[in-house]
Queue: 2 jobs
Job 1
Amino acid sequence: MGDLRDIINYFTLENLTTDGYYKVTQDIYKRQTQSIFGNVELGYNNYLYLTVTGRNDWDSALAHSLSGDKSFFYPSVGLSTIVSEMAPMPQWFSFLKVRLSYTSVGNSYPPYLTKEFYTYDDQTTLWGADAYYPNRYLKPEITNSFEAGLDMNFLANKVNLNVTYYTSNTKNQTFVANLASTTGYEGVYVQAGNVQNRGVEAAIGYRNNWRGFGWESNATFAYNKNIVKNLANGFTNPVTGEPIEMEYIDKATLGSTGSPIVRLTKGGTMGDIYTNREFLRDDNGYIYLDYNTSTPSLVNGEYRKIGTLTPKSHAGWRNSFGYKGVRLNVLLSGRFGGNVVSNTQAYLDYYGVSKSSAKLRETGVSMAGKNVSAENYYSVVASGTGQGAFYVYKATNIRLQEMSIEYTIPRKWLGNVADITVGFVGNNLWMIYCKAPFDPELVASASDTYYTGVDYFMMPSLRNLGFSVKIQF
C-alpha cells in the first residue's frame, strides 16, 4: 500500500502513503478487560451471615502505565445479623435485622492517556500531537463505600421500616491541569480528585385488610450530599515539575458565552453553578440605564455561586387500595432542592414569543426609577442562551407520577381456567408543583455529568396512557 508518510515507526493505516489516490481511515480501537471473580458466603445458626467477594481486572488501557498498576483489585465484605432470631423480642416487634457492608469498586481511565499519540486533520492532511500531554503514572479510579442499615417489621408484619446510611469516597479521579502555551500542549492529565458522597435512605410501609378491603402504603425518602474533598492541590506537574494548585475547575458552560458555568471547588459539590454577569451600576449602587434608550447593561465581575444542579432529596409515596378484585394504585413523587437552567426560555423571551414576554410588554420592568420596555430588557438578559442567573430556576417539583386501576376477573367466571387482570395505567399525569418552565427531571445529556438539568429545546416530558392485560394459568 505504501511507505510510512510522516511519523517514523508510527504504524497506523493513516500514516501510509497513498500517492494521492485514496486515504484509509482508522478511527476505532480494541479494548480488552480480563477479570477473575470469587465469592464466599457463610451462615451461622440462621441469624449470622457473612459474604465476601473479590475481583481483579486487567484492563488494556493500563498497558502503558509506569505506575506499576497493571491491574486493580476491589473486594467487598457484608455482615448481617437477624437480631430477632438471636434473642426474644417484644410481641409487637416482629423482625429486626442489622446489616453492615464495605465495598470497593475499581474503574480504569480511558485508553491512550499514558502514551503519546497523534491525530489526523482531514482538512490540512497533516498529523499532529494530541493537545494533552500524557501522564505515564496514572492509577485506576477507586470508590470505597461503607453502608449500615436496619430492617424492621412491627405489629405482625403490618408495618415495616428500612433505614440505610451510606458514605463513599472516589479517589484518583482524572483532571486536566492547564499548561503554558510554550510547552506545546494545552494541558496534562493529573489524578487528585477526591469526591465524597453521604446520604440516608429510608422506607416505611403499612398494609392491612378489613373485610375484603385492603390498603398498602409505602413512603420512601432519600437524602444525598456530595463534597469535593480535593482537586489537585499538592501534586506535581509532570511536565514542569512545579506543584499544582487548583482553586477551581470549570467543567461546563450551560449555554453560550455569559451563561452560567459548572465549577468545581474544594468544599463545593459536583454540580455547583457560578456566574459573573451582573447589571452595570453607578457609584450609588443603582442599575445604570442608557440615557437615550433606557437600556441596562451587563458587565463581568467576580464569579459567585448561585446554586447547584444536584437536589437535596427525593421522596415518593405509593398507595394501593383493593376491594373485591378492583385495585387502585397511586404514586406521588417529589424532588426537593437544586436548580435547572432553561436556554429555551431565554430564546423565547428574546424573540418575544413567550407568555412572560407578552406580560412584560404590557407592564415593562421598573429599574432605577424608570420603566424599561420588554424589548430593551430581554435584548440584554436573554441574549445568546440567557445571561447570568436570569434563567436559573428552582428544580423542586411534586407530581402525580403514576395512577392505575385494575380488575381481576373471578376465576370461576372463566371455568377455573385462568385469572385475567385488565387494567388502565397512566404515567406522569399531573405536575402538582413546579416553578421551572420545563420538567426538571428531564436530562439533556445521558453521558455528561455536568450537563444535567439544562433545557435547550428538548422534547417535553411525555404523559403515557395505556392498557394492560395479565393472564395467569
Job 2
Amino acid sequence: MEKTKVLFVHQEITPYLDENPISLVGRNLPEGIQMKGKEIRIFMPRFGSINERRNQLHEVIRLSGMNLIINDTDHPLIIKVASIQKARMQIYFIDNDDFFTKRKSTITDKDGVFFEDNDDRTVFFSRGVIETIRKLNWSPDIIHCHGWMSALIPIYIKKVFRDNPLFNESKIVYSLYDDDFTETFRDGFDKKMKLQNITPEDVTHLQDANYVNLMKTALDFSDGVIMGSEKINPELEDYARSLNIPLLEYQSPENYVDAYNDFYDNIK
C-alpha cells in the first residue's frame, strides 16, 4: 500500500526561528508523522534572520529560476533546502531577495512595524510552495497549513489547481493559532492575490484583508480545521464551528501527533 503523503506548510519552524508553541509544532509534528509511516515534505519562508551558514542552507538550482508575477511585477523564486539530520527531515525554503533575504527579521522591522508588503509576501510564499511541489511532481494526500502566511494555499489549491492531477484529490487541513496581527493588508489585496478560476465571491472576505478575514478565507476552502492553540480569536472560533467540516479540538503537546495522525486518516 502506498504511503500517505503529507505536505506541511509552516510559517515558523525551530531551530531556524526562535522557539515558541507554533515553531515547536513545525519542528516536532512532521517528525512524528514521518515516524507514523507517512511520507512528508516541509516548506517555510526563508526569512532573513535565518543564518544560512549555521543552518547549512543551499540553493536547489533545478527548482529555482521561475518568476512569479504579483501586481504586474516579476519576482524571482529561489528554493533552498536544509536538513535536520537527527530527524532525517529536509526543509524547503521559499526565498526571494526583496521579500526575504535582505530583511533581518520576519514580519516586522527592527522597530516592530508590520512590513507594508506582507500582503505580497503572503502571495509569493503560497504560490511559491505550490509551484515547487509542481516541479517536484509530488502529489500530497494531505496539505496541512500553519501560520497566516500560508492562508492562501487552500483557495489556490481548491480553485486554481482543482483540475491539476497533483492536487485534485488533496485534502487541506488548516490549523488556527493565536497569531493575530492588528494591521490590515493594503487596499486591493482581493484583486492582487487572484488567479484564474477565483471569482469575486470567493474573496469577499478579503475586500477588508485583516487577520480574521484572511483566516476565514483559508477556512472556506479547507477540508478540516484544527484548534492549534488553547485560545483562538473568538470570532474565528465561532466561524470555524459554523462550517460543516471536521474540527479537531486543541491537543496538548503530549497528544497532538497521535491526534493529528488520526485526523489525517479520517479526512482523506
